[in-house]
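2024-03-11 09:14:02 DEBUG pipeline.ingest accepted 1 chain
2024-03-11 09:14:02 DEBUG pipeline.ingest length=744
2024-03-11 09:14:03 DEBUG pipeline.predict start
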Amino acid sequence: MATAVTDPIEPSGPKRRRRRARREAAAAAIGNGVHAGSNGIGDASVAVVAPDDASAAPVVLEAPPAEPQADEFRDLLGQAVGLRLDAVSREFGGGHEMHVAALRNVTLDVGPCEFVAIVGPSGCGKSTLLSLMGGLDRPTSGHVYGAGLPLGELPDRDLSDYRLQRVSTIFQTFNLIPSMTAEDNVALPLTLAGVELEERRKRARHLLALVGLEDRASTRAGRLSGGEQQKVAVARALANRPGLILADEPTGSLDSAAGEGVLKLLQDLNSRGATVVLVTHDPEVARHARRVVRMIDGRAIELDAGKPTVRSQEPVDPAARMQWRDTLKVGLGSAGRRPLRTALTTTGVAIGIAALSLIVALAGGLQDALNAPALVTSQVHQVAVYPVADAATPAFNQGTLDTLAGLPHVKAAWGLIGMNGTFAATPPIGVTKPSTPPSGALVSLPLLGRSSALPSLSAGRLPSSDLATEVLLTDSEAVSLGFRSPPGAIGTQVKFSATSGSLVPALVRNPVTKALTLNLLVVGIVSNNYMPAGTPGALAPNGLMRTYWTSLAGVNGWKGGEYASITLLADSGLSVESLRRRVEALGFQSQTFGDQFRNFEDLLGKLRVALLGLALVALLLACLGIANTMYTAVLERTKEIGVLKALGARSRDVLLLFLAEALGIGLAGGIVGALVAVGLGRLGNAAVDRLTQSVTGTGFDVFRTDVPVVLVAVLLAAMLSCVSGLLPALRAARQDPSRALRYE
């Protein structure tokens, strides 16, 4: 366990009393300037005595003549941090890389409230030394203490807390996130610390006002000038009330006027109680500090040695962490920076989820369709019976119908009665009556209460009962009767006179010698496709046709051949095959219309397998696309990862940010894919309806897209996206902050 390093015993006597007096004066100045109603830097006129030089002139902060306003944040700075480096060395490279010794046996003390400048040429180790002080890097040998904590020995979690709560770094290159506004950049440390939204907004605006950028709060950082970006970086450094401010060449990218303003700001922060360590190669900049440390070839040479006073810091509350709402917001915002790449990846997820959703909808919908009540009376449960090919009379009589109706599992039975004859009707006014009555066939309908395999009407309605004297006229027969438009025949009376008691007079000899006229009311119009062989004519109720045939048979002496075929309705779909075998055992031919439907079901099964393969391939490609997108994002945002960790983000925070980005892509793809599946399912149901109506007489929802299916699809997309983005997120979380900040 790491132990805190305490101060050596301070000297006694007048020197100790003077030091204590200076500290009390500084503390009083901080309390008067901040706690007693100041709004921060520049908002109150306060004379502050420098802690290390009692003879120095007071630093006066001018303020406009206005009533002091209460500072809602109580203070700008935390407890001053002391630093100590004991024989610290830092080496890079090794193995296949070039070996570089950045620091060589550096021993240095920086007391609390000191302002120290580290000067030296480029490459002498200044920035490396600053990284060690800020907890961004660990020494190869030696010990680094900050706030009494052995930084080189702390676990990453505690080191992140140190950076979040104790130290802030002002980078030479600003290291702002360009896609975020100035306000969001300043509030980023507060976001990482789990501060509520309203409070961090107030503090961010307050800090921007301190540096004179309150009117640029909503401007994206990438659109600010260099001087404005540096001011935003300074404001961000004060967000979490640090006790140690590390400034890496803060004036290197600024003109002389802006640079002087930043240096005065650092002096003011130091006078308020912050420890400031400034890295520069400019001697003029270094003169603003109270102490100067020169770096040469990785070694530190103190021009004015400091006092060995590394103070053990008072404990702070455990660091709160970023809330889940902020994690999602920042992660989704990162995905929105690359709209084209994100859209392409989302499309891949949507295709896979849409295919999977369609497969699930197809499986559930088809099962419901096969168990639908409409199928109980449809052709799927029917067995059509025909005479054998070499029968003396290729037709059935009533006795055969009664025998077949008595078989087990027969729910209902009816025969197909067909006659040839002539039709007559009174044509509309202005239309010439045909000189010769048009011929046609009159065919019986299935039982209205027992079968759903009824014809689709182009106009009108079905007969009201099996005995009603009503008829469905074919469109071609209506035209032959003189009606210009077939629907115009609805509501008129037609007369049918049979000339033969069978559909094929040459096979069944039932000639009509004594004709009987049947008066019928036209109630509907159907297509010729519903007639045997597509002949013109009409469809009449089954009971009416039996009565008419019986009347004709009585006056003409017919002995049989009433039914061209017989239809048996099974009591369940499972009994269709057994009923079919019994019919064939009696010596008849049979056909089940379920065979046609089952062929269609087989086609849908093959389609299901094809869609499953497509879905798996699409999901695999989508997962690879997400992983590739996230890996690319890690490379593009390596420096941003370094900034987040420098501001105090833990590895867990970075991991969750990238997982939130992957989750956003997955959710978007899942929602789009589910909506596409719903739309395609509706189109598929419409297409299947047209195919099945000719078999079942009704339509079915073969694709059943229920709400649970949609929700599961969206959740599956989110889960797969998180799994695909896990490895890139882990790589981002393991980035070393010091190397990430140097990444170009």
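2024-03-11 09:14:41 DEBUG pipeline.report The first strand starts at residue 47 and ends at 48.
2024-03-11 09:14:41 DEBUG pipeline.predict end
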